[in-house]
Design goal:
Radius of gyration: 22 Å
Bound molecules: pyridoxal-5'-phosphate
Distance between the termini: 40 Å
CATH architecture of the largest domain: 3-Layer(aba) Sandwich
Oligomer: single chain
Helix content: 25-40%
Low-confidence stretches: 379-408
CATH topology of the largest domain: Aspartate Aminotransferase, domain 2
Number of helices: 14
CATH class of the largest domain: Alpha Beta
Strand order of the largest sheet: 4-12-11-10-7-5-6
Largest sheet: 7 strands, mixed
Length: 408
């Protein structure tokens, strides 16, 4: 049992010899594209710990990129998946439907923010869910344009990649991208001189600080829609409640609320990409709960099934019914084993104090991490570290927007 051992145990130089040998085989057999942030190979994992093939044990702060929110190999999740495997592993929901898919849909319809009647469609990855959210939005509105934001990350398939902001490494050399995608500035309070940290929830209209990027970004968003596209031609606006890959910056509440209101007023489908923020990552089941907004479409993946590939688009019934019979699907969409594991993961959030635990850990880290803050660095280094110290105001004023974009 890994959990019986001290959290960190380093027995060999890192990487150890077994990991080095596997890396040599990996380099011979696998192209360089899929990167690694650590040089060690996993042997087993449990809770928050990973043991590598050389017997070293680490705390896994990455959680498989925000996936194993209930911990590695949670016994309830694993036993539900095994139980399902003993019954059947795959029939394809498009050929022979099965109850676990319906159960996950029912649970997500119930749990998703807002009171509107909802339906859920399941697929495999976050990117695939983003792709489908755009399909639902376009089918419903019969419009084409999609507005996304600076620094956004929505995935790597073509529509998702087109919505993603950063070129290297995600988009470089892969053009042409999908058309009818427009990018608006993100209210990046940390890197915009004159901004203030506004979590007040007040309305943008009433805000006296016209230089705050909450205000200027919302003006720019409206200018893009009304000046460049035409508000009657926009199908969807998509945003991450906390910009993840782009620097772990929460959307300021006034901006989020103004965005939702603008979309409602203009028959634009408001899509929240909660692939990374969902299932406890912000202390609530969904980050939308911090903003008191109801997305028209909620896109989730990662923590949904605690480690098996499963993603979902949950949205207002009228939008979800806009695609005709056979217009949405896929061979593996909503795999029954992944669904069984998702049901067990949802139980953890609903029936235990897992969310409270997330909040406690978040508060403890929030209290203690500032003690480890380093003194301000020269501009370029400060910029490079922006993603890891999003709330450090000490370097904010010295960094112009262009510097950040060049060196992050
Ligand atoms: C906000 C967000 N959207 C979309 C994706 C893409 O998900 P996937 O890697 O499962 O395709 C990610 C993955 O990191 C993400 O963080």
């Amino acid at each position: 049992m890994l959990n019986d051992m001290p959290a960190i145990q380093i027995k060999t130089p890192i990487p150890g010899s077994q990991s080095q040998q596997l890396m040599a085989r990996r380099e011979a057999a696998v192209p360089q594209g899929p990167f690694h942030v650590t040089p060690v190979f996993a042997a087993r994992a449990e809770g928050a710990l990973i043991e590598d093939v050389d017997g070293n044990t680490f705390i896994d702060f990455a959680s498989g990129i925000g996936v194993t929110n209930c911990g590695h190999n949670h016994p309830d999740l694993v036993s539900r998946a095994k139980e399902q495997m003993d019954k059947y592993v795959h029939t394809s929901f498009n050929v022979v439907p099965y109850e676990p898919y319906v159960q996950v849909a029912e649970r997500l319809n119930e749990l998703a923010p807002g009171d509107s009647p909802k339906k859920t469609f399941l697929v495999n990855s976050g990117s695939e869910a983003v792709e489908n959210a755009i399909k639902f939005a376009r089918a419903h509105t019969k419009k084409q344009a999609v507005v996304c934001f600076d620094h956004a990350y929505h995935g790597r398939t073509y529509m998702a990649m087109s919505l993603t902001a950063k070129t290297k490494p995600y988009k470089y050399g892969f053009a042409p991208f999908n058309s009818e995608i427009y990018r608006a500035p993100f209210p990046y309070l940390y890197r915009t001189p004159g901004s203030v940290d506004r979590t007040c929830g007040g309305s943008i209209e009433a805000c006296p600080n016209t230089t705050c990027s909450c205000n200027t970004s919302f003006d720019a968003f409206k200018d893009i829609i009304e000046g460049q596209i035409g508000s009657d031609l926009v199908a969807a606006v998509i945003i991450e409640p906390v910009m993840g890959e782009g620097g772990f910056m929460p959307v300021p509440a006034p901006f989020m609320q103004s965005l939702a209101a603008y979309c409602k007023a203009n028959n634009i489908v408001f899509i929240l990409d909660e692939i990374q923020t969902g299932f406890g990552r912000t202390g609530k089941l969904f980050a939308a709960e911090h903003y008191d907004v109801e997305p028209d479409l909620l896109v989730v993946a990662k923590g949904l099934a605690g480690g098996l590939p499963l993603s979902a688009v949950t949205g207002r019934t009228e939008i979800m019914e806009a695609i005709g019979v056979g217009g949405a699907g896929g061979t593996y969409s909503g795999n029954p084993v992944a669904c069984a594991m998702a049901l067990a993961a949802l139980d953890q959030f609903e029936k235990t104090d897992a969310l409270k635990h997330c909040q406690t850990l978040g508060d403890a880290l929030g209290d203690r991490l500032p003690d480890h803050r380093r003194p301000p660095r020269p501009r370029s280094n400060a910029c490079r570290r922006a993603g890891h110290r999003p709330l450090d105001q000490s370097t904010q004023q010295g960094c112009r927007r262009q510097d950040h974009q060049v060196c992050l």
